[in-house]
Design goal:
The chain is α/β, with parallel strands linked by helices. The protein contains 7 helices and 7 strands.
Length: about 220
């Protein structure tokens, strides 16, 4: 009976270990971290096959390097969600950590029925919230290198009313003093977008290569 219980316990622990955070590569023997924060621009696993996600494409690009890729971005995330995403990563406060942040798109889409009236007040509130969150993140992980991801323009014409907001958002982002990955000039083909506003397999490849280029810059 005791032997049986021990076997069951061992099997249970093995199952738990296998299922813990599948999106995180083991840190063992890794000396560089790429941390993905924000929304579905970086975590598009709900819209494409696993092999075609931004995460998988990054794994392919960095598979021969000593790099640990950590996925904390979440589908439908907004600026307010950033804090909970990076607070569990304070141990990575070092110069070998690269934090890639894509956030704000879902917040702008929340300006329903007001985008085409150019509601500058609501836009300013969102941008100030974004700036404060990035500043707070930097203060908690001052040694890490921060990369900001710009918003891109959805191909679907239903979202054309947000074009001015996206343009202003990206312009303000450049002025924050961090390196910016410009998806607005990268994801411009129809095949780069799926489900109206999400990165497709080809979009994932472009994003992953842009991150690699930014890190090696």
């Amino acid at each position: 009976m005791i032997v049986y219980l021990i076997i069951c316990l061992v099997l249970f622990l093995l199952v738990c270990l296998i299922n813990i955070n599948k999106n995180i590569e083991p840190l063992t023997n890794k000396n560089k971290q790429i941390i993905l924060l924000g929304d579905s621009i970086l975590n598009n696993s709900n819209y494409v096959d696993t092999k075609d996600t931004v995460f998988s494409q990054l794994q392919k690009l960095f598979n021969s390097t000593n790099t640990n890729i950590i996925m904390k971005a979440e589908d439908n995330a907004k600026i307010v969600n950033l804090d909970s995403q990076y607070n569990s990563l304070l141990e990575y406060n070092n110069s070998d950590t690269y934090i890639v942040i894509s956030i704000g798109g879902n917040d702008i889409l929340g300006l329903t029925n007001k985008a085409n009236t150019n509601n500058n007040s609501q836009f300013s509130e969102l941008m100030n919230e974004y700036k404060e969150e990035i500043t707070l993140l930097h203060s908690k992980l001052p040694k890490a290198y921060i990369l900001l991801v710009s918003l891109y323009y959805p191909i679907d014409t239903r979202f054309s009313i947000y074009k001015n907001f996206i343009t202003k958002w990206n312009q303000n982002m450049v002025g924050l003093g961090y390196q910016v990955i410009h998806l607005d000039t990268l994801l411009v083909d129809k095949d780069d977008i799926i489900s109206s506003i999400e990165p497709s397999p080809s979009g994932s490849k472009k994003i992953a290569h842009a991150i690699l280029k930014a890190i090696n810059k």
